[in-house]
Amino acid sequence: MSGAERRCLVAGNWKMNGLLEDAMAYVAELGENPAPEHVEVAIMPPFTLLHPMSGPLSEKGVRLGAQSVYFEQKGAFTGSISPLMLRDAGCHYVILGHSERRDIIHEDNALIRKKMLAAWQAGLEPILCIGEHLEEREAGKTNDVLREQLAILEGVAENKPLTVAYEPVWAIGTGRTATPEQVVETHAFVHEELARLGCDCRVLYGGSVKPDNAEALLACPGVEGALVGGASLQADSFMRIIEAAARAAG
Length: 250
Hints:
The chain is 38% helix and 16% strand. It has ten helices and eight strands. It has helices at 20-29, 50-59, 83-88, 99-103, 109-121, 134-138, 142-150, 180-196, 214-218, 235-249; strands spanning 8-13, 39-44, 63-66, 91-96, 125-130, 163-166, 202-206, 225-228. It is globular and about 45 Å long. The protein starts with 7 loop residues before the first strand and ends with a helix.
């Protein structure tokens, strides 16, 4: 689907937060998407909440996603979740390559590629996260880092369901946000690199997206949605970002 036809995506990544009672209260509080023709909404809760949230979110027109996946369908892989299990729970999306998985769990590009291929095989749409650390940006290496991370798409991603999320690592959970100029410049490079790889897909921005900066970020050329962390944990805050996306898209 071309950029002129596709909706922007506002996706909430809850990370390791959320218990059942709070999650059900959150869904009940979540308001109506003001512009479903322009804005798609998704939530990625912890694995324990996928099944109970699937139905209530679907009733509100919100898609479900997971925060990670293993690359095998089943087997003796203690503690792992297969892509078939995610589909069984009602997931459409799965986040891959998040910097916290790269930096804390030490997932490398080869593993992320295997997960991506397994996700596609199971009918999931990966949200592939890419981004540079502060020292890499200051050294002028941002494009080199992003090119290397996107290289896992080489030869396999054409005509596959895919969303890419650019998240500068130095802006995740820090309160710092890339300037509009940095966002526009970097998203232009990412779109250019994706085109070279034969991919026509959405590129989201992530990294301390909040209600007070969401509209400005989402209005930047090349930004087709947001991957939201902490600000997605409260229904009111998340709804304000969705409303900002509707204004930016309208």
